[in-house]
Amino acid sequence: MYDTGKLREECGIFGIYGEPAGRSITGCVLNGLYALQHRGQESCGIAVNNGGEITAHRDLGLLSEVFGGVFGAEKLKSLGGGQIAIGHVRYGTTGANVRLNAQPLTVNHIKGCMALAHNGNLTNHHALRKNLELSGSIFQTTSDTEVIAYIITRERLRRPSIEEAVSAAMDHIKGAYSLVIMSPRKLMAVRDPFGFRPLCIGKLGDCVVFASESCALDGIGASLVRDVEPGEIVIADHEGLRSIRTHCGGRTAHCVFEYIYFARPDSVLDGVPVQTARQRAGAFLAMEHPVQADVVVGVPDSGLDAALGYARQSGIPYGIGFIKSKYIGRTFIEPGQSNRENLVRIKLNPISATVSGKRIVLIDDSIVRGTTSARIVKTLRDAGALEVHMRVSAPPFINPCYFGTDISSREHLVAAHNTVEETARIIGADSLGYLSTENVFKLNDRPVGGFCAGCFTGDYPEAVPEVRECE
Amino acid sequence: MYDTGKLREECGIFGIYGEPAGRSITGCVLNGLYALQHRGQESCGIAVNNGGEITAHRDLGLLSEVFGGVFGAEKLKSLGGGQIAIGHVRYGTTGANVRLNAQPLTVNHIKGCMALAHNGNLTNHHALRKNLELSGSIFQTTSDTEVIAYIITRERLRRPSIEEAVSAAMDHIKGAYSLVIMSPRKLMAVRDPFGFRPLCIGKLGDCVVFASESCALDGIGASLVRDVEPGEIVIADHEGLRSIRTHCGGRTAHCVFEYIYFARPDSVLDGVPVQTARQRAGAFLAMEHPVQADVVVGVPDSGLDAALGYARQSGIPYGIGFIKSKYIGRTFIEPGQSNRENLVRIKLNPISATVSGKRIVLIDDSIVRGTTSARIVKTLRDAGALEVHMRVSAPPFINPCYFGTDISSREHLVAAHNTVEETARIIGADSLGYLSTENVFKLNDRPVGGFCAGCFTGDYPEAVPEVRECE
Amino acid sequence: MYDTGKLREECGIFGIYGEPAGRSITGCVLNGLYALQHRGQESCGIAVNNGGEITAHRDLGLLSEVFGGVFGAEKLKSLGGGQIAIGHVRYGTTGANVRLNAQPLTVNHIKGCMALAHNGNLTNHHALRKNLELSGSIFQTTSDTEVIAYIITRERLRRPSIEEAVSAAMDHIKGAYSLVIMSPRKLMAVRDPFGFRPLCIGKLGDCVVFASESCALDGIGASLVRDVEPGEIVIADHEGLRSIRTHCGGRTAHCVFEYIYFARPDSVLDGVPVQTARQRAGAFLAMEHPVQADVVVGVPDSGLDAALGYARQSGIPYGIGFIKSKYIGRTFIEPGQSNRENLVRIKLNPISATVSGKRIVLIDDSIVRGTTSARIVKTLRDAGALEVHMRVSAPPFINPCYFGTDISSREHLVAAHNTVEETARIIGADSLGYLSTENVFKLNDRPVGGFCAGCFTGDYPEAVPEVRECE
Amino acid sequence: MYDTGKLREECGIFGIYGEPAGRSITGCVLNGLYALQHRGQESCGIAVNNGGEITAHRDLGLLSEVFGGVFGAEKLKSLGGGQIAIGHVRYGTTGANVRLNAQPLTVNHIKGCMALAHNGNLTNHHALRKNLELSGSIFQTTSDTEVIAYIITRERLRRPSIEEAVSAAMDHIKGAYSLVIMSPRKLMAVRDPFGFRPLCIGKLGDCVVFASESCALDGIGASLVRDVEPGEIVIADHEGLRSIRTHCGGRTAHCVFEYIYFARPDSVLDGVPVQTARQRAGAFLAMEHPVQADVVVGVPDSGLDAALGYARQSGIPYGIGFIKSKYIGRTFIEPGQSNRENLVRIKLNPISATVSGKRIVLIDDSIVRGTTSARIVKTLRDAGALEVHMRVSAPPFINPCYFGTDISSREHLVAAHNTVEETARIIGADSLGYLSTENVFKLNDRPVGGFCAGCFTGDYPEAVPEVRECE
Does domain B11-250 have CATH number 3.30.1330.60? Predict the structure, then answer.
């Protein structure tokens, strides 16, 4: 598989309580997950609870690989029906055992079954795991979800209910976590007190739905009720919906990169439409880094909205500068090392009619290593662009993230080791401009401080480990 | 698989003569075909000629399914190397035998081997086939490519060379055909005298490349030399490149729908950039059917360029109104009948931030049955659009095509049975406007008459059969 | 895949006319083919005729791979029902195009559709093919079945019926052929005038069944009516069963190796039970090559009956000396070159309880290259055998076969280049004895001359080509 | 998949310590497992330890499906090399989650990694599991192997070494267990104090090998050293081989059905060749239940040795009465309900030459439900047998097994509800005779009491649960 040169989110989660009228519950989960596939493409799974019995299927691959086709449809059908179901899409580390890490995690304990789907990253994962091991626990996965399952299980032994066990577990776990948890008779949505990762509540007829992003609600025809509050536990059971808010009320730290890149533009996160935030980023960029040019083009797909924002603000015409191939999937295997350089043209081909003989403002949402950007700039020049002025709808990415994305060290971050001018030279652009950190906090209307922008600023909302504790 | 509500092109073809320096010849064909996958997604194949021995692999499925993954890479590798190679992507009729119809077709005759890849449709297919049968021919496929192979073979018996046999065969076959033909030592590109389907010539180092569209040249890093002329046979062999032009010089009839929908916007067909033609269509639409509105949005992907053209001409802001899912592939199997209605939201979700509370100009390239358009209009209203004014960047589609697309009768064409006002009501739009036939001929700078627009006008460049003669 | 060191039959064929009460016609063909799988394991196919429309599926692989499992069951189901159906299992040459050679071959000609399944080898294949090419024929496979289809088609143009065309075609084709041929309304079974390969007629309720061996009749619960006579064409249609016998009555030449190795012991070929012939071969061996020993063991599976015949004749106890693994399939890929030597122990492990400390008579049906026999002898000695006296239930194999088996030259035949004593030394046996050619003709009760034993004697029933004309 | 009408063993295990010269360690495990495939065909897995890091692959399917073919070979290769490796083949309950139950189980605990492969069944599984749950354990599988892993882990916290933890764990677990356990630097073989399931020690160069049966040693070219003693822990590490024998010395209870049916005839279990035991069973049967007959035929494969023993003892000729199809695999899906009755003829066809017109002694190793036996008797009569006298080389099977086979209740056991005469009538035999329980204890030379024959006698060597505690 080719390197996309992009940051990767760790996961997307989905849960539904109730039997949707005239529809299959697993079909709803699958449709919801399809809308979240951009959040995780390495493995996926669905677990369904039928009268307290949990059946699950999870495997490596896209949803269309695991649940599509003749085999996949058989698998989906074999899950049967139920009253509660959850699902998960995931990025993760590679390795022979990685199928084990596919979620939802399903476990049995003294009170029956439990299934969990997790999006985030615990900062005290290793310490918690060591403590559990010291009391005789065994681990079959390398994911921190198993740690969470253990801690809830231990708390459950001395708490009257699963939701109180979850609440007690929240005293122990630190970092970013958005969870859906299914017990024999309840479905819970849990969000860490900072609200790093998104999680929202929807309604589909009499059913309650939880999803990482509101686009998954659209995907099944559900309506958005509200977001799960940072620190909130929302419980859906036969009595309806209720909350435990003992961990609510602190400082929030929504990941700003959800708005810039991770989330889908048709989602609304914590009240802010993602598309609006991106167009605003483009407009800020136009104000911060103006340039004389003929056309503004965005790198598809995530750079398009910022490009439109830049164009509108600057008055420079918006153009469609690239064709992105839909057909080169993850199954692509490069036919011969020497064909590799052409890959960028197969994946992303500039359109000469738009770029030839033009001065281009090129908008992307990030520069990670710089190699992908360099290739894109070169294809534009090969297609006849006179000048290429790159504008990035985020500040320079110079610090590791400990809260659920896959950049674990500064080593490969081009912006961490080069000035803006050096970076421009490395990627071959005539000029380069990043969004300022001041403006990144203005992507929504909230007061400064509601965001985590540690990857740009190094200022994290809570203590981070000496060594990054993820898989 | 869901019905896309779109017309479907029949095929894309690719050929290369020569061994590309430092690269595998089959890898080049595969990369070229990836760039042509939009022209055919039901089957694909590659044939390689190594010293006069042809090895081929073809199967049902996308390129990523047939030549991707572990198995596909094995298949590609098993083809070995060679000095000439051709490839094909295809739509076609369904049915148990359809794998047989996958191309390139490989045959052996008295002069050795031959492989053909064909894009088009012969209008006298049935008559030719019957004549061949009367002289004892047997047919193993239902494709007209096999008819072409027979006729060339028969002519070859009394002609001194394969190219003269091909030229003689052109006296017999009628209709639309763009072909690449590989003999033991030559590669030929052939285009029917009307030039219905595109075909171009490229150069990659010392290699000659033929492809349906120039985007396939970009895909392998080749440069566009020129288009194959209507009626021309271009022969590549060890002596270089030469042409037979005995069938050249007549009236041309390039399919106008290649510009409107089939071709990729980054391709240049017969000298006209596809993107330019589409933006021009949008501009004409704005002049023909102006409307008071707040934002112009295109239906992705093929409606985007016309939407930009409309926006620029009208002064109404261009907006990004939809998210199109990349993840719901052809392998999708609907989980329960009742979930079907939500499919359109999974595939194509409107972005409220752009459409809510707005008067929308919605641009698409065609309306076939009307059901897809109706669903799209409805999702816009559900997302809060105040008004939806649909504009179609083509005239009403009211006649069958005999030249290589898959609309065989007027029966299901909504525009063939309804006025524009009725159609607007059927699809739920506040207003509806089509591009005029006058303007469709102005999508490039050529004089009227260079296009075939029979699907709009009923005026075909040559006699068409009583009954449409395709599979 | 490992080399089995065995000769390989080319094919098995099956056909049914009529709709079996309460059963699916394709299910019957599949069950019949399962019983013939030993005759061909590289590809298989089924063609079904529903009202004159033929639908077929054929692919590389075992029946359980092509028609088993979830995918295979879908394929079988997609064939639908019908009134006539034929099937085929096949060995063949390897190569990229080999899927094309899978049968039944289905073709269309002026009189409609035709499907053929062929077991045998034409000796004048190349000459016939060249003549066809000279009149403009094209070939899409390398199999001689396509040649037969052409010749029948050409004759059909000037004959009033398909059966008369088949009869006329038999004047042209030479060599070994057992065929089932399906036309729009008829099913025919055809056997060459020498009757090289077996072919029998069965009855299942009102249905007529044709099969290579009677075990396929058992497999579907049909009863054996009689064998197709050498030279006979048997036609099943709505008028019942009738024959054309214009090519009957000459000298017959049944392949003697069908009795020795190819056929299943539960089949009865041309009136002779295969098991009886094998046990008789063992008894002859005991008379020709007696030895002092403690136990007689056969190499499973085909050596067991001859071993029992030897034991009964000699009075030496019969023993079960080997376990043959059922689990190492054709999909086996050797994990590392160095593990190869152990493969024979995984596939065929001697049982110490029977062989340790014993003088062994080891019975096998043939020695081809000698390497497999050498490995088997060695494993017996490793397991403690004191002496190993090998007895082969056939004469030395020293000539190529032109009539449907896969030994094309004498080059690798150990018996063609070594005396019996030398061969014994090569394989490591204490002694070695072959069945005499005199006795091989007595394996059934027919007069000498009814068999082809050209592979042993070099005396072929008809002229053979200078160069072996098979794929 | 069809019901075989046979009891099913639960598992086969294999382990190797050391790097085999010139061979891959995973290739050795795979070859060993191929020889054990008869002990488990539903799932399989291999775990390899490279410097303390364990990599594993396990999945549903036969070894040829999971580790064969292009994909399987990739999987095997991806495991890499190592210094210790274990493997497992398994039967088990069906269900959506069953892939989770595939072994070896790999876990991490405070002392590092551990992998276990288990053959057997704990009788106190449920009680142990409940206790573990009460202390906060979570379970991800339903297999008792996970219980064993937990108990060892808990003991490991307070024991100085893994082997002492295993020894302490043996104080808690009851029932049948043969285990191979891999820690970061050691490989252990453990057998329960009764020695229900077999387990042996082999030597391959400098490597130590453990396997369920000695045929797996043959399969990799290793030599049999001795059996693991009941109650023994054998530890292989860099210091060599040593034992803990604190649980040795009690009454042994080897499963007698291993000799009668489960084990391969080429294995030697606890000093007794399986083939010898089976032939002895046949001889006892001949003495206990003589009959006037013409031929003795065994039901392949497991009835053949007893048939030979019966024939030798009785003087009635041994015959080869059936052909068993090798080609109808587990992937077989029945083409239409009505074809089902013919399945027995496709799987097992009688050979008329042997059975027609004869009085048959039919030997099989067991009758479970009776339906399979009835079908076999019927096919013999259809093939012309005059009389069928069934003899069973085991006593009537009338009690559940708690020690690792899959008969959980008496409900479906024909012998539990019918007299011998009634059973004979049910299966359609002219007479029926079972081996006596007296003689079943004489299948080897050990004193009565060394066997467990609880399934025949109801006399179990240790307390069994009220309700059978298996998955």
Answer: no
